[in-house]
């Protein structure tokens, strides 16, 4: 194998090593919040450095040849290890690999930082029926004289009416969370199916990382929260993925002894005592079951409701 062939083989091996390194770094730096941002910045710096090195090598080779022709100065042995074409092929190839790794990492950062909202599923519309209180007929006062002008003795209307006790939720009354507004996070209402069992009053949400995937409700005055947690049978891209849910109160105290793990075909029944709880927050993180790597998947609380105390 002559010198030219050895140089060509060296360039080929360097490019293969660079491609393998870039692919390995992309797979290793999976945390969008920290690792992927570091890798993106590193790719930008390396790509800039390779561009500078390429310009300097081309300039150095041309300068070395010109000095050799004009002044008889021996050409640089380092620069002559490869031909100009081989130098360009190696350096430009490494630059392209670095830019490609940085571009893919940038796409991951953008996709992870701006998670798509959960799909809005059609669900039943809750209609509140107000039952007017029966009017109380006036009773005659036998102590009043017939000559007394009753219009002057009639009590005046209360300018500051108080809320009737009948308007407050009764103990034991149930409220589905698909009719409640979230105080934090996002969720969509609609029907869900776990293991071929339909849950018409469900809420779905994007499950990725516990720090950014959460939903919170005002449950003051409630006694119990019940739901069936799971991943809908028809969820796309959920194969081999699991979702882990944890419930907290307004003080950050965990309301369940262990995280609730669910996957397609494996829903879990959830029942939480809400006595004294004002805000109920649910966090959710997705993962690949075989490797425990972070993943994203839509998750659902089937027929989620609260029971008033």
From TrEMBL:
Gene3D superfamilies: NPCBM/NEW2 domain. Residues 131-193 are annotated as: Disordered. Keywords: Membrane, Transmembrane, Transmembrane helix. The keyword Iron does not apply. The chain crosses the membrane at residues 7-30, 36-58, 87-111. InterPro entries: NPCBM_sf. This is NPCBM/NEW2 domain-containing protein. It comes from Asanoa siamensis.
């Amino acid at each position: 194998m002559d010198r030219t062939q050895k140089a060509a083989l060296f360039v080929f091996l360097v490019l293969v090593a660079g491609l393998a390194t870039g692919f390995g770094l992309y797979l290793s730096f999976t945390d969008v919040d920290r690792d992927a941002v570091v890798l993106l910045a590193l790719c930008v710096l390396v790509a800039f450095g390779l561009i500078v090195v390429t310009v300097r090598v081309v300039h150095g080779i041309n300068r070395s040849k010109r000095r050799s022709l004009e002044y008889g100065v021996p050409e640089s042995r380092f620069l002559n290890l490869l031909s100009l074409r081989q130098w360009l092929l190696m350096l430009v190839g490494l630059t392209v690999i670095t830019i490609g790794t940085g571009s893919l990492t940038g796409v991951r950062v953008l996709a992870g930082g701006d998670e798509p909202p959960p799909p809005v599923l059609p669900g039943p519309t809750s209609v509140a029926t107000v039952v007017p209180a029966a009017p109380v007929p006036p009773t005659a006062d036998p102590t009043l004289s017939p000559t007394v002008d009753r219009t002057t003795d009639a009590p005046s209307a209360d300018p500051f009416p108080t809320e009737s006790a009948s308007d407050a939720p009764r103990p034991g009354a149930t409220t589905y969370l698909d009719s409640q507004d979230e105080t934090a996070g996002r969720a969509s209402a609609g029907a869900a199916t776990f293991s071929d069992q339909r849950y018409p009053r469900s809420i779905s949400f994007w499950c990725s990382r516990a720090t950014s995937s959460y939903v919170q409700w005002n449950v003051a005055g409630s006694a119990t929260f019940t739901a069936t947690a799971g991943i809908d049978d028809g969820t796309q891209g959920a194969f081999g993925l699991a979702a882990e849910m944890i419930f907290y109160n307004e003080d950050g105290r965990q309301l369940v002894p262990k995280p609730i793990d669910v996957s397609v075909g494996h829903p879990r029944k959830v029942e939480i005592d809400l006595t004294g709880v004002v805000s109920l927050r649910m966090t959710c993180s997705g993962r690949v079951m075989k490797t425990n790597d972070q993943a994203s998947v839509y998750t659902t609380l089937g027929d989620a409701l609260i029971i008033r105390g």
